[in-house]
Amino acid sequence: MARFGAGLGFAFGCGCGAGVGAALGVAGAALAPRDTLALGRVAAGLARLRELAPLEKGAFLQALGDIAEEDGNVRLVEHELLRAIACALDSPMPLSIAALDPRLLRK
Predict the structure, then answer these.
(1) Which of 60, 63, 33 is nearest to 46 (CA)?
(2) Which whole number is the average pLDDT over 60-64?
(3) Could you tell me if residue 94 is left (phi over 0), alpha (psi between -120 and 50 degrees) or otherwise beta?
(4) CB within 8 A of 25, min separation 6: which ones?
Protein backbone atom coordinates (compact mmCIF):
# COMPACT_ATOMS: atom_id res chain seq x y z
CA MET A 1 0.00 0.00 0.00
CA ALA A 2 2.88 2.34 0.60
CA ARG A 3 3.62 2.69 -3.10
CA PHE A 4 0.23 4.13 -4.01
CA GLY A 5 -0.51 5.55 -0.55
CA ALA A 6 2.28 8.10 -0.58
CA GLY A 7 1.29 9.47 -3.95
CA LEU A 8 -2.47 9.07 -3.73
CA GLY A 9 -3.22 12.74 -3.17
CA PHE A 10 -0.92 13.66 -6.02
CA ALA A 11 -2.41 10.98 -8.26
CA PHE A 12 -5.86 12.48 -7.87
CA GLY A 13 -4.62 16.04 -7.70
CA CYS A 14 -6.42 16.43 -4.40
CA GLY A 15 -6.15 15.36 -0.80
CA CYS A 16 -8.27 12.77 0.88
CA GLY A 17 -10.00 12.83 4.23
CA ALA A 18 -8.25 11.77 7.42
CA GLY A 19 -10.11 8.43 7.53
CA VAL A 20 -9.35 7.76 3.90
CA GLY A 21 -5.76 8.84 4.37
CA ALA A 22 -5.27 6.59 7.38
CA ALA A 23 -6.75 3.56 5.58
CA LEU A 24 -4.53 4.16 2.57
CA GLY A 25 -1.38 5.01 4.52
CA VAL A 26 -1.47 8.74 3.80
CA ALA A 27 -1.15 10.41 7.20
CA GLY A 28 -2.35 13.96 7.66
CA ALA A 29 -4.32 14.09 4.41
CA ALA A 30 -7.11 16.64 4.06
CA LEU A 31 -10.07 16.90 1.74
CA ALA A 32 -9.59 19.17 -1.22
CA PRO A 33 -12.28 21.82 -1.64
CA ARG A 34 -15.14 20.48 -3.74
CA ASP A 35 -14.86 23.35 -6.23
CA THR A 36 -11.26 22.34 -7.05
CA LEU A 37 -12.22 18.88 -8.26
CA ALA A 38 -12.47 18.39 -12.00
CA LEU A 39 -13.06 15.40 -14.24
CA GLY A 40 -9.65 15.84 -15.85
CA ARG A 41 -7.92 15.56 -12.48
CA VAL A 42 -9.85 12.42 -11.58
CA ALA A 43 -9.11 10.88 -15.00
CA ALA A 44 -5.41 11.64 -14.57
CA GLY A 45 -5.45 10.07 -11.12
CA LEU A 46 -7.17 6.94 -12.39
CA ALA A 47 -4.62 6.71 -15.21
CA ARG A 48 -1.82 6.73 -12.64
CA LEU A 49 -3.61 4.14 -10.51
CA ARG A 50 -4.00 1.88 -13.57
CA GLU A 51 -0.19 1.61 -13.60
CA LEU A 52 -0.24 -0.26 -10.28
CA ALA A 53 0.48 -3.98 -10.21
CA PRO A 54 -2.64 -6.17 -9.91
CA LEU A 55 -2.07 -6.95 -6.21
CA GLU A 56 -1.59 -3.25 -5.45
CA LYS A 57 -4.85 -2.45 -7.24
CA GLY A 58 -6.57 -5.10 -5.15
CA ALA A 59 -5.14 -3.66 -1.94
CA PHE A 60 -6.22 -0.16 -3.00
CA LEU A 61 -9.77 -1.31 -3.78
CA GLN A 62 -9.95 -3.29 -0.54
CA ALA A 63 -8.96 -0.14 1.39
CA LEU A 64 -11.72 1.78 -0.38
CA GLY A 65 -14.16 -1.04 0.44
CA ASP A 66 -13.11 -0.96 4.09
CA ILE A 67 -13.77 2.78 4.13
CA ALA A 68 -17.22 2.30 2.58
CA GLU A 69 -18.04 -0.31 5.24
CA GLU A 70 -16.62 1.71 8.15
CA ASP A 71 -20.01 2.86 9.44
CA GLY A 72 -21.56 -0.58 8.92
CA ASN A 73 -23.87 0.73 6.21
CA VAL A 74 -22.73 0.73 2.58
CA ARG A 75 -24.84 3.23 0.65
CA LEU A 76 -25.77 2.78 -2.98
CA VAL A 77 -23.62 5.74 -4.05
CA GLU A 78 -20.59 4.21 -2.29
CA HIS A 79 -21.24 0.85 -3.92
CA GLU A 80 -21.59 2.38 -7.37
CA LEU A 81 -18.51 4.60 -6.97
CA LEU A 82 -16.40 1.63 -5.91
CA ARG A 83 -17.77 -0.38 -8.82
CA ALA A 84 -16.85 2.41 -11.25
CA ILE A 85 -13.33 2.73 -9.83
CA ALA A 86 -12.81 -1.04 -9.98
CA CYS A 87 -14.02 -1.04 -13.58
CA ALA A 88 -11.70 1.86 -14.47
CA LEU A 89 -8.78 -0.07 -12.95
CA ASP A 90 -9.86 -3.29 -14.71
CA SER A 91 -9.95 -5.05 -11.34
CA PRO A 92 -12.63 -6.93 -9.42
CA MET A 93 -14.48 -5.27 -6.56
CA PRO A 94 -13.68 -6.43 -3.03
CA LEU A 95 -15.79 -9.51 -2.31
CA SER A 96 -17.44 -7.98 0.74
CA ILE A 97 -18.81 -5.14 -1.41
CA ALA A 98 -19.45 -7.17 -4.57
CA ALA A 99 -21.65 -9.57 -2.59
CA LEU A 100 -24.09 -6.78 -1.69
CA ASP A 101 -27.24 -6.51 -3.77
CA PRO A 102 -27.39 -2.88 -5.00
CA ARG A 103 -31.20 -3.06 -5.04
CA LEU A 104 -31.19 -3.45 -1.26
CA LEU A 105 -28.83 -0.56 -0.46
CA ARG A 106 -30.01 2.80 0.90
CA LYS A 107 -29.68 5.77 -1.37
Answers:
(1) 60
(2) 90
(3) beta
(4) 1, 2, 5, 6
Say how far apart CA 16 and CA 64 lie, in whole Å: 12
pLDDT tens sequence across 26-44: 555 566 677 877 888 888 8
The predicted pLDDT at position 87 comes to: 93
Q: What is the 3-state secondary structure (H, E, C) of the chain?
A: CHHHHHCHHHHHCCCCCHHHHHHHCCCCCCCCCHHHCCHHHHHHHHHHHCCCCHHHHHHHHHHHHHHHHCCCCCCHHHHHHHHHHHHHCCCCCCHHHHCCCHHHCCC
* Most distant CA pair in the chain, distance: 36
Query: Could you tell me the pLDDT band of residue 20, with boundaries at 50, 70 and 90?
Result: low
Per the confidence metrics, is the pTM higher than 0.85?
A: no
- What are the domain boundaries of the chain? 2-104
